[in-house]
Amino acid sequence: MTIRIDYTNMMSGAVSGGISSEAWSGAREAFANARQIFVKRREGDELGFINLALDGAGIGALLGFADGTGQAFSDIVVLGIGGSALGPIALRSALRSTSWNALDDEAREYYPRLHVLENIDPVTVTSVLDRVELGRTLFLVISKSGGTAETMAQYLIARGRLQAELGEDYHRHLVFITDPVKGALREIARRDGIAALEIPSNVGGRFSALSPVGLLPAALIGIDVRALLAGAADMFTRCDSDDLASNPAAVFGTLQWLADTTLGRRNHIMMPYSDPLRDFGGWFVQLWAESLGKIQPGGTSVGPTPIPALGVTDQHSQVQLFMEGPLDKTVTFLVVGQRKADLEIPRLHDDIPELAYLGGRTLADLLDAERRATAAALSQRGRLNMTITLDSIDAHHVGGLIMLFEMATIYAGGLYGVNPLDQPGVELGKRFTYALMGRPDAVDAKREWDAIREPEQRWSV
Amino acid sequence: MTIRIDYTNMMSGAVSGGISSEAWSGAREAFANARQIFVKRREGDELGFINLALDGAGIGALLGFADGTGQAFSDIVVLGIGGSALGPIALRSALRSTSWNALDDEAREYYPRLHVLENIDPVTVTSVLDRVELGRTLFLVISKSGGTAETMAQYLIARGRLQAELGEDYHRHLVFITDPVKGALREIARRDGIAALEIPSNVGGRFSALSPVGLLPAALIGIDVRALLAGAADMFTRCDSDDLASNPAAVFGTLQWLADTTLGRRNHIMMPYSDPLRDFGGWFVQLWAESLGKIQPGGTSVGPTPIPALGVTDQHSQVQLFMEGPLDKTVTFLVVGQRKADLEIPRLHDDIPELAYLGGRTLADLLDAERRATAAALSQRGRLNMTITLDSIDAHHVGGLIMLFEMATIYAGGLYGVNPLDQPGVELGKRFTYALMGRPDAVDAKREWDAIREPEQRWSV
Predict the structure, then answer these.
(1) Closest chain B residue to the Cα of A454, Cα to Cα
(2) Can you state the angle between helices A48-55 and A225-239, rounded to 10 degrees?
(3) Best A120, A141, A251, A335 residue to mutate vs chain B (most B CBs within 10 Å)
(4) What is A49-223's CATH number, 3.40.50.10490, 1.10.760.10, 2.40.10.120, 3.30.1330.40?
(5) CA of A219, closest CA in chain B: separation in Å?
(6) Which residues contact A205 (CB under 8 A, 6 or more apart)?
(7) ipTM of the assembly?
(8) Which residues does chain A have within 8 Å of residue B107's beta carbon, measured at their own beta carbons?
(9) Candidate from B102, B349, B363 with C-beta closest to A101
(10) DSSP string computed for A244-313
(11) Across the interface, do B326 and A302 touch by the CB < 8 Å criterion?
(12) B144, B290, B329, B446: which one is catalytic?
């Protein structure tokens, strides 16, 4: 496996206004501090996502479960949101196909379709539930807390339909993935004899891609989950180091933090030049945004804004802004060495210059030329960028990529001076939702909601 | 039709640190100036997107073409990128289904599937080309300039396959949508007798959703394109006004500009609480980013960064950052009054408080409660937000929404002091691509590329 970060174009030697060698040397101390915080968290057993990769605990049982049940179903439906959805989606796109559910049985090698219901729009929920054959469908209900409102609502609807159509057999079409001990789902599993897998208590939603949250859906559609874990474990070894320069997670996290806090490059674009890695962008956005967008203990709001993009597509959308807009961005290119397929462009219209030069080349040639051209153009204009190259898109590399960014996030948390593992900012919205939905035990929330003062003037058009 | 913007939560009366009444009154003058620039552009016939809605020119022919050919095909494949792809995708998701291509013939009312190849990743291109039956597939080759590298490459591959499989019949499976006079596609259409529709010369890619670029794909899958245009025309009437307070496009554009330039709220989140409107976000991102991310004539880089989000999904991903991160964002909620479907949540587990309160309510209830809760929570924490409400998602409203944002973009261009119709920043990357692909006429580009100095030190890990 090789995952390599080339960050030449983040540095002032290549890009005007970039990070100077001095600033980079100076950052060693800040990283050393972040590393210490990491070590403490690890000793305090807060970083369960690492154990997932190193122990592989429970993987045998998970694979047994997937083997035993998977073939019985034509459709898997994940009911989950946020970290319970983004991992499965990213793995499906990267390691199976971006159009997996549109493939026929043979093209899917008789593995089931995998739907991920990551929202509660009734239009979508209806569409998916109407489309699947319930008797051949398995619902994976995924919630760390076991009480996520959106997932509970989906679960109630799915269970209602299963009971109506299949009677007592309903429970064979449900699997819960939740906390080992706590929460409503765990209680229901016990009471009703529903199969339930564990998300370790020290693994938060956005760090759960390599727990059963990501691995069970992955295994059910035939992804090599052992290779995912092995790739993550290999990457962890590289990232578990005090030496900034040889630690890829430390390099990524420290560069982004420096670019933000010393150069005002606060918007961090994640731009794969690869359709299979497109949904990886959504997974990264949650990880980076929810972990680092925080109020520091001193009361200061910090945190970079991660933004998804796609090459070459966004050259025709966002790149104008990246090239000429404010100097407030970094761009990370995600690049694949060896693609699974290539297509030669035939020689037609040899007399028309807009087409002739393409003939005989391949789509991968063009994609790579455009990516190199874009990186060079950005660099010429003082726009910081770096390139992360995967040899190929396979389970080993994707596992490595996941661990790379998870580790980078923990280090960045230390650098930004925030706790990368919590998300206190979403509590107020949750309380207000309970108040509006009339949850009986939300008495304080109701009082808080009612206390909101209506503004003297409303503005509308 | 009603499309309403409630911007109370952008203002200091409701949100601490918001726009003051004085600043808002003061902005009238800036808008008056932007309005003048708009009027001049309109008089100079630069704003063809307006005529598309008002004239409906060519719509009869387009509908005739769609009726005559549409039913012969099971699959439509759009070959296009940027503005040639984002409009068709947004229309398909909003007005048909986010999973249109996964529906069976009956659920699609026997309209064809619509694939949009907006990238050149060979993995995706291969997957789509292998999946469709060429004899029942129509390729729409969409390029304003008629020479877009990515689209030309796709076209050559598709044409090669069509000729190999269908012989001389190939040309019945191709339609070009391009400039009326110029460009390689126009030349090929003439020479080889391939059907070609026109993108008016004064309609740029990102303003082309209501030209044949968006309308032909829409018509082919049964969307009411006359209603799209009528909705856009209605909205234009509201937006063609000197009075800031009653002009929705002016209000949206001026608020965002004020929030950016006077309050540092430069990141503009577009957050529909609706799956069908999700892809509208991608369309908006191109429009806002590519139109406004510019270097002013004086040499200053300006431009807001549009960011897509989705409610409620992103409450579990980006909202932590929106709530606690730096005060550099505005959030625009896109809300639907009447959804096409709703689902009641059954009363099960009445003894478990995490689930009991949901029983008897509907998914739309929960979705709306969460949106109101999120807006209120953001407001409490000084995070500016506004809410755009559509009565329902139908062609009339979607046409109106498109016109609203197109007009807002033109006004915002005037406010930011940039030309919203060009995209000079992408030229350098294009030249470098030509150099790397060895295009024979790219002599200057090759020299420019070769002149790039290799940095003294490369940095990698």
Answers:
(1) B14
(2) 120
(3) A120
(4) 3.40.50.10490
(5) 22
(6) A82, A83, A84, A144, A213, B316
(7) 0.98
(8) 131
(9) B102
(10) GGG-HHHHHHHHHHHHHHHH---EEEEEESSGGGHHHHHHHHHHHHHHH-EE-TTS-EE--EEEE--TTG
(11) yes
(12) B290
Q: Is B290 a catalytic residue?
A: yes
Catalytic residue at A133? no
The full set of domain ranges for chain A reads 3-41+228-416, 49-223, 427-461
Distance from CA of A64 to the nearest CA of B (A): 30
Substitution target in A123, A178, A332 with the highest count of B β-carbons within 10 Å is A123
| Order of strands across the sheet that contains A75-79 | A113-117, A75-79, A137-143, A174-178, A195-198
Within B183-318, residue ranges assigned H as helices are 184-192, 212-220, 225-239, 248-263, 278-292
CATH code reported for the domain at A3-41+228-416: 3.40.50.10490
pTM (two decimals): 0.98
Tokens of A151: 């997932």
CA distances from B261 to B19, B343, B429 (A): 11, 43, 29
Angstrom CA distances, A403 to A129, A202, A215, A412, B93, stand at 34, 16, 14, 14, 34
Q: pLDDT truncated to tens, each residue of chain B (461 aa)?
A: 699 999 999 999 999 999 999 999 999 999 999 999 999 999 999 999 999 999 987 899 899 989 887 678 999 999 999 999 999 999 999 999 989 998 999 999 999 999 999 999 999 999 999 999 999 999 999 999 999 999 999 999 999 999 999 999 999 999 999 999 999 999 999 999 999 999 999 999 999 999 999 999 999 999 999 999 999 999 999 999 999 999 999 999 999 999 999 999 999 999 999 999 999 999 999 999 999 999 999 999 999 999 999 999 999 999 999 999 999 999 999 999 988 889 999 999 999 999 999 999 999 999 999 999 999 999 999 999 999 999 999 999 999 999 999 999 999 999 999 999 999 999 999 999 999 999 999 999 999 999 998 999 999 99
